[in-house]
Amino acid sequence: MINSRFRKRAVLTLRQYPVYLVDDDDAVRNGLCVLFEAYDRKALAYASPVGFLRDVTSAKPGCLVLDLQMPHLTGLELQTELIGLGVRWPIVMITGHGDVDHCRAAFKSGVIDFLSKPVDSDLLFEALDKADRFLEALLEAEETEALLATLTPREHEIVNLICRGWGSREISMALDISVRTVDAHRANISDKLGTKSPAEFAQMLIIADRRS
């Protein structure tokens, strides 16, 4: 059997997001960059968390690979700074000084995975697959929230009733407005949300509710 470390990984249907690698160790950083390039995974590397913080607000969403122990800011402290900026992208934490307490703290803070150096390539890419799925769901939820935020209070009322299976006449009676007015609201809702499907309306409300 061919060693998985030396074979190309299967092409995934899941979208792969950029990797942002932050590690002050030149050898580790350069080695991981070579690995990412070999697997056609776009990666941007930073030797300092301060430099990454300077760029992150203008960066495209991606998966973070952070060293736990760095000067000035640890990986967990960098995560706290990112949350303060509203950046909740998935994190894979790597370290050469890991222990049970650090591992527990990382997972409690929402880190996707915690890997020891030298980093096993298979475990790293498995963790990045999880991170891609997490980020895909996160961005979908953020987009859904943004779309729902465009609805007026009345449109919110109506979309909730639509999701309960109510027709325009039932909604008009419940809200004491004309059927024509209900239909106009329904058209506006469909334009704003990009769908006429009650099932898709319901799915969007569920996604938004999970984040509230």
Task: Briefly say what this structure is.
This protein is of the alpha/beta class. Helix content is 55%, strand content 10%. It folds into two domains: 14-137, Response regulator (Rossmann fold), CATH 3.40.50.2300; 150-211, Orthogonal Bundle (Arc Repressor Mutant, subunit A), CATH 1.10.10.10.
Task: Walk me through what this model shows.
- The chain has helices at residues 26-38, 49-56, 75-84, 100-108, 121-148, 153-163, 168-175, 179-193, 198-211, and strands at residues 19-22, 43-46, 63-67, 91-95, 113-116.
- By secondary structure, it is α/β, with parallel strands linked by helices.
- It folds into 2 domains: 14-137, 3-Layer(aba) Sandwich (Rossmann fold), CATH 3.40.50.2300; 150-211, Arc Repressor Mutant, subunit A, CATH 1.10.10.10.
- Strand 1, helix 1 (26-38) and strand 2 form a beta-alpha-beta unit.
- Helix 6 (153-163) packs across helix 9 and helix 7 (168-175) crosses helix 8.
- The radius of gyration is 23 Å and the shape is elongated.
- Residues 1-13 have low confidence and may be disordered.
Distance N terminus to C terminus?
48 Å
How many strands, which pairing sense, and closed or not: the largest β-sheet?
A: 5 strands, parallel
**Rg on CA atoms, Å:** 23 Å
> Please, how many domains?
2
Q: How much helix is in the residues?
A: 40-55%
User: Number of DSSP helices?
Assistant: 9
**Largest sheet strand order:** 2-1-3-4-5
Number of strands: 5
What is the typical, i.e. mean, pLDDT? 89
Which band does the percent of strand residues land in? Answer: 5-15%
SSE-based structural type: alpha/beta
What is the correct CATH architecture of the largest domain?
A: 3-Layer(aba) Sandwich
